[in-house]
Specification:
With 285 residues, the protein is an all-beta fold. It has no helices and 18 strands. The protein binds calcium ion. The site of calcium ion has 9 residues, from strand 18.
């Protein structure tokens, strides 16, 4: 049977209808098959750390016998924002049911009042509410990595080697790729990677972890680089390395008050990309 697609705006769905009969008279529209909307997890906690957004999956499942295109609309209480406001997908009429999911990130702007917020998901007449508890950031304890989850930026990014994965608290070599940043300008230097705080912090140590097995030469790690702290409008170098072949480099310095640190990479041992598994920053001890 030939099928045509018609939007059914009121229902939020696009129904797959039978084509007009040979006589030209359209057949009556049948009600759309049931699309089940869900979210996982069903409730979230979030903080305003920009590199650690809360995440959930929105899922639609066609439990009927006719394939459909469906739209789910996503809206968060302000000031929270979502990575997607619409999730549109084809939903096959499969047996067993074939759920289709989309990951969604929840961002909490700086200064958001801790408390309870809602994310509303709708498709057709269905409505799912995902409660979000925004928690205040705890005061850092002595020895905490102050760069954890803070705003990361870089001169460029290579594919899925996202900047935030170098401040995610995971510096495990075996977890590369997936937990580290790589620049995206092959063979071209310098590259830079920066972590920024919303207010001044006092630092005395910065640790950079590049790609390389602990105890072995980091043959694909950064080789020539400077570790810098922001000082007014300028960058002040607190550690300068040439010919480095180790994975973790610890830079200690007299206490400084700053709101940003940077790794400026002049070359890598492999000559192609700058790779950082993690950048960590600590208060003076
Ligand atoms: Ca990491």
């Amino acid at each position: 049977m030939k099928k045509i697609l018609l939007p059914a705006a009121a229902a939020g769905l696009t129904l797959v209808l039978a084509a007009p009969s040979a006589s030209g008279a359209p057949r009556p529209a049948r009600p759309g098959p049931p699309v089940v909307l869900s979210a996982s997890p069903a409730a979230l906690t979030a903080t305003e750390l920009p590199c650690l957004p809360a995440k959930f999956d929105v899922t639609m499942t066609n439990t009927g016998t006719t394939p459909v295109f469906a739209d789910a609309f996503l809206e968060a209480d302000r000031p929270l924002t979502l990575s997607d406001s619409v999730f549109s997908t084809y939903l096959p009429a499969a047996d067993p049911d074939q759920p289709v999911s989309r990951p969604v990130k929840v961002r909490v702007p700086r200064g958001t009042t801790p408390g309870d917020y809602d994310i509303e998901l709708t498709t057709g007449r269905q409505r799912v509410v995902v409660p979000v508890t925004v928690e205040a950031l705890p005061e850092p304890a002595p020895g905490d990595n102050l760069a954890y989850g803070q705003q990361a930026t870089a001169s460029s990014t290579h594919g899925s080697h996202a900047v935030c994965s170098a401040v995610d608290g995971d510096s495990t070599y075996a977890n590369w790729p997936g937990t580290g940043w790589s620049d995206g300008t092959r063979g071209t230097f310098p590259d830079w990677f920066t972590v920024t705080w919303p207010e001044q912090v006092e630092l005395g140590r910065i640790e950079t972890v590049t790609y390389g097995a602990p105890g072995s030469p980091a043959t694909r790690g950064i080789k020539d680089f400077d570790v810098q702290v922001k000082s007014g409008a300028d960058w002040r170098t607190v550690g300068s390395y040439r010919g480095n072949t180790v994975d973790r480099v610890v830079t200690t310095f007299d206490p400084v008050t700053t709101d940003a640190v940077r790794v400026l990479v002049h070359s890598s041992n492999s000559g192609d990309y700058s790779r950082l598994l993690e950048l960590e920053a600590y208060a003076p001890q």
